[in-house]
């Protein structure tokens, strides 16, 4: 895609897309569609700023229905919107979608639940993901005005999952130049968001294992302890018994010798 004077022109068929790379952050953009006469057009993120680290996605959905239109969330018809009196404006249609990831990957199954609420908190739709996609029922508008909705994910019961708590504000602006036309813009948690709403869940990390308690090391004494005989060692008990008997005999002999000396001393004193 090449720009001349800040403008790039290109042609797309149904289902095709075009990407502009290298646009500086902070630059504002506007995407317009031509040659859509006779179609009801829904524009999403057709204008906005280029945000750092994200991709702005502008989309156009053209719808050609039968004349007469149908009722919808926009209420009754708001008039011919400037067209001829014989023309009944076709209602605008908006298909809200979102994406789902689990740890950065597309989840299998449909185990996550999503809500579409109006500005008053009234729950309008409840949908489950189909793999990585969430698709809400078509909203139709046959009255000009501004309509606000909110997209959120239900916090589940799996304690091992961090559920995405983001709240996307969806603003639908409906005009009627000939048929009703809707323009959709998003905010994420109060900040402008120029892409498809995305809900990203992650797996909680396991708690770290507790650090084992270290047993203090035993310090050997400075000198070896005396060997104490074990009570069940009969040989040591006999040895200790012999030593005790010998000590008692020595004490008896010592006492006897002391008494004899005293008698002799007294005898000598008596003779003098």
From TrEMBL:
An example Pfam family from this entry, by short name, is: FctA
Q: Does the keyword Transmembrane helix apply?
A: yes
Cross-referenced Gene3D superfamilies, in alphabetical order? Answer: 2.60.40.3050, Collagen-binding surface protein Cna, B-type domain (2.60.40.1140)
Q: Which InterPro entries match?
A: DUF7601 (IPR055382), Strep_pil_isopept_link (IPR022464), Strep_pil_link_sf (IPR038174)
Kinase is among the record's keywords: no
The chain positions of domain DUF7601 read: 3-63
Q: Where is the composition biased (Gly residues)?
A: 66-84
Q: Where are the transmembrane segments?
A: 237-258
Provide the alphabetized UniProt keywords: Membrane, Transmembrane, Transmembrane helix
Region Disordered, annotated ranges = 59-91
Domain (Streptococcal pilin isopeptide linkage): give its ranges. 97-202
Could you identify this protein by its name?
Streptococcal pilin isopeptide linkage domain
């Amino acid at each position: 895609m090449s720009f001349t004077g800040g403008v790039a022109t290109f042609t797309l068929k149904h289902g095709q897309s075009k990407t502009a790379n290298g646009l500086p952050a902070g630059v504002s953009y506007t995407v317009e569609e031509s040659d859509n006469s006779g179609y009801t057009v829904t524009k999403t993120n057709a204008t906005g700023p280029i945000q750092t680290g994200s991709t702005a996605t502008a989309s156009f959905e053209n719808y050609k229905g039968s004349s007469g239109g149908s009722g919808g969330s926009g209420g009754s018809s708001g008039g011919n919107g400037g067209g001829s009196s014989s023309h009944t404006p076709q209602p605008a249609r908006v298909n809200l979608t979102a994406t789902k990831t689990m740890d950065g990957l597309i989840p299998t199954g449909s185990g996550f639940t999503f809500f579409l609420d109006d500005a008053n908190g009234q729950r309008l739709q409840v949908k489950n993901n189909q793999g990585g996609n969430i698709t809400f029922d078509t909203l139709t508008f046959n009255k000009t005005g501004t309509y606000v909705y909110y997209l959120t994910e239900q916090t589940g019961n799996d304690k091992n999952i961090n559920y995405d708590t983001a709240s996307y504000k969806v603003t639908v602006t409906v005009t009627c130049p000939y048929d009703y036309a809707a323009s959709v813009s998003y905010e994420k948690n109060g900040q402008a968001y120029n892409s498809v709403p995305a809900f990203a869940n992650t797996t909680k990390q396991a708690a770290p294992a507790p650090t084992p308690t270290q047993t203090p090391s035993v310090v050997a004494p400075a000198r070896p302890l005396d060997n104490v005989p074990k009570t069940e060692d009969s040989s040591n008990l006999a040895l200790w018994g012999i030593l005790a008997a010998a000590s008692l005999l020595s004490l008896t002999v010592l006492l006897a010798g002391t008494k004899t000396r005293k008698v002799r001393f007294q005898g000598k004193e008596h003779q003098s």
